[in-house]
Amino acid sequence: MSDEFSYKIRGFFGRIPSEPHDLTDRITRTEACIVLCHLGVVDGHTADDWRLEIGGLVERPKVLTVRELKSFPRHEIASVHQCAGSPLAPDKPTRRVCNVSWAGVRLDYLLKMVGVERTARFVWSNGADSGEFGGIECGHYVKDLPLSRAANDVLLAYEMNGSGLLPEHGFPLRLVVPGYYGTNSVKWLRKIELRAERAPGVFTTRWYNDPEPDGSTRPVWEIAPQSIIVSPKPDSRLNSGGLVQVWGWAWGDSNLAAVELSSDDGATWQQCRLEHAPGWSWTKFVCDFFVTERCTGLLSRARSRSGELQPVTGRRNAIYRVPISVL
Ligand SMILES: Nc1nc2c(c(=O)[nH]1)N[C@H]1C(S)=C(S)[C@@H](COP(=O)(O)O)O[C@H]1N2
Ligand SMILES: [Mo]
What we know:
mainly beta, Immunoglobulin-like, 2 domains, 5-stranded mixed beta sheet, 2 helices, binds the ligand Nc1nc2c(c(=O)[nH]1)N[C@H]1C(S)=C(S)[C@@H](COP(=O)(O)O)O[C@H]1N2, binds molybdenum atom
């Protein structure tokens, strides 16, 4: 297969994400999942002519067909799939999120097969797509992740929600990095490289690096703690004195310690009950709310085990507020 690919759509393509109040299912239907493509939607190939290369700092480089990949042990995971937002507006909360069931081959299974050299520290993943984004010629879509992360259920997925991948989700093969922002889950995956340093290219050097207080930057890898209220939906009219069950989803790369609800714009917080799902799925939170006359909105905030809390504004995981009116 050559490096030339045909496209169903050229240039940036995204699907307007579901509103939080539409995300009522634990596993999001594929039609309601986010779609985010910086350079276009690669299409026109078949699974049979697709090849995956594994090279770089490995003892036995390989080229694998999709059929071969499917003959290896199949692994299923459900995981939160969240876009970090536009790389041109990295701190703007977008809440482009869904929870997906994936199936494929584990990355660490393939790495054992090729034998990783001791000097390797990063896994680079190369997409077939290339082109222009943000007025810049980007080359191929290339991302990286620390090699130490590979054993954390990272998949080379060929199925999404029980069916083969759709073109816009990376048919026939994509990476899935559970717990990391979607940007790291490279679609139309053509090449895995083991390297000693981070990958060059605009998607790992220019964009997707957050500023840190000490002036350094941090790659947009791990998902920060976050939560959305699913019910009640925005602009619900609630009866004063009534009892309403507020519920939603919370997630993040590290384990969640708590989710709290505020009905007074953050002055006070009450603990929610958590219904933990296994693995990388989002967690349901539930909270009883006695409707108070002066309430104009509901806020939820998630806290990680390490104490990280959702900020009020200014970051992609800023608190989500549901406006309501009280009758
Ligand atoms: N090859 C390739 N992979 C990609 C992208 C892309 O533009 N090209 N976009 C990334 C971003 S920013 C996100 S949020 C997810 C979205 O995956 P989805 O469209 O399947 O939901 O794919 C990631 N993988
Ligand atoms: Mo994204």
